[in-house]
Amino acid sequence: MKRTKKERQQLLCDTIEQNPFVTDEQLASQFGVSVQTIRLDRMELSIPELRERIKDVASRNYENEVKSLPLDEVIGEIIDIELDQRAISIFDVRTEHVFQRNGIARGHHLFAQANSLAVAVINDELALTVKSNVVFLKPVKLGDRVVTKALVRGQHNEKNRTYIDVVSTVNNSTVFKGEFEMYRTKGVGEENETSN
Amino acid sequence: MKRTKKERQQLLCDTIEQNPFVTDEQLASQFGVSVQTIRLDRMELSIPELRERIKDVASRNYENEVKSLPLDEVIGEIIDIELDQRAISIFDVRTEHVFQRNGIARGHHLFAQANSLAVAVINDELALTVKSNVVFLKPVKLGDRVVTKALVRGQHNEKNRTYIDVVSTVNNSTVFKGEFEMYRTKGVGEENETSN
Questions:
Q1: Does B103 touch chain A (CB under 8 A)?
Q2: With contact defined as beta carbons under 8 Å apart, do A160 and A120 qualify?
Q3: C-alpha distances in angstroms, A97 versus A183, B40, B105, B109, B112?
Q4: A100 touches chain B (CB under 8 A)
Q5: Is the ipTM of this complex over 0.90?
Q6: Closest to A130 (Cβ–Cβ): which among B100, B130, B136?
Q7: Average of pLDDT values for A147-151?
Q8: pLDDT of res. B147
Q9: Domains and CATH numbers, chain B
Q10: How far is CA B133 from CA A10, A140, B106, in A?
Q11: Are the C-beta atoms of residues B133 and B82 closer than 8 Å to each other?
């Protein structure tokens, strides 16, 4: 069943809204049209290209939002965050992140992106990793853009713990998963002690 | 019960042989004597000081020994290795490895040292991390020397897997533990394909 142009453009809007990181190539293959058609659709709808969409979200300032560490200590770039709820970062795999021999990203860089996002999402001045279970599902290659999402799964106020699930994807395919148990100084909803 | 000098010196030799990273301060406290006494004992026994002992092991060349990655890709310095059996590395925590705010070492650097040692110990041209469970037991601080030991715990030749336990210590106190499940291209004892 061929979609009308109007239907396709509506679907395009919805898809990009749900996943701002989708490429024109992925959209073309999903809708069974050419990449050129997608580009024309985007122009008609005034949707910027992927690179611009990413720059746009990335340029938003999270410096005052993240509590647990300075933003420049986050590995990857935070593009969305809701403290104690969820966070997203992107990380571009460059030469210095891969094994020289095979161009596969080294595990500790994926771990670093996930771990620092788990720290960043916590609404506390101090957050330390206690435990972590991680799985490397697919090799990540030089040039890949890793999109990592952290989701706060649970909380144990008496033990000062926050439990976070992290999933990293490349082109919507899961490459890495991690569970992080984090220590924090105060529970969610507890008041900050203010120093007057 | 006070030991004779001869007994103490014998014990000193044994202790340093078992743990070349023990400091004079630790030995003094262990034997209930002054640091000066330990230094004199070492001189009489011609045992170099800790710094020299470490330099000595570190200067040995493992370049031809490690198969799975070039030595400069190992995080930390390998000071002992027996392929498919065990390996030891040391890692000095410097400013670039700690959180600016509190001087605590960032988790991914400890992970990186452990993970790259788990890669290095494997006697194969390719070794990739599949899974990893890690625990951060004590904060590691700026200036700490982390001694990490990897021990090959098991092997599954059909699945091309090697299981490795890693323990990191600072001043003989455990700071980090990890289990690593590694993928390799061939099982232990299987022949390398030689290209003639």
A1: no
A2: no
A3: 28, 48, 20, 14, 12
A4: yes
A5: no
A6: B136
A7: 96
A8: 94
A9: 5-58 (1.10.10.10), 71-184 (3.10.129.10)
A10: 44, 20, 17
A11: no
Find where tokens 């144990």 sit: A156
Rounded mean pLDDT, B98-113: 94
Q: How many CB atoms lie within 10 A of CB B141?
A: 14
Residue A190: the pLDDT is 64
Residues of chain B in contact with residue A139, where contact means CB-CB under 8 angstroms, are: 128
Question: Over the stretch B3-13, which tens digit does the pLDDT of each residue have?
Answer: 888 999 999 99
* Residue A111 touches chain B, beta carbons under 8 Å: yes
> The tokens of B103 are what?
């001087």
Tokens of A86: 């969820």
Closest CA to B152 of B161, B163, B139: B163
Query: How many beta carbons lie within 10 A of that of residue A5, not counting itself?
Result: 13
What count of residues does chain B have? 196
The whole-number average pLDDT for the span B143-150 is 94
Q: Which of B112, B128, B133 sits opposite A133 (nearest CB)?
A: B133
Q: Which of B138, B91, B185, B62 is nearest to A108 (CA)?
A: B91
- Is the predicted pLDDT of residue B48 greater than 70, yes or no? yes
Per-position DSSP letters for B68-129, written without gaps between them:
SS-GGGSSSEEEEEETTTEEEEEEE--GGGB-TTT-BBPHHHHHHHHHHHHHHTS-SS-EEE
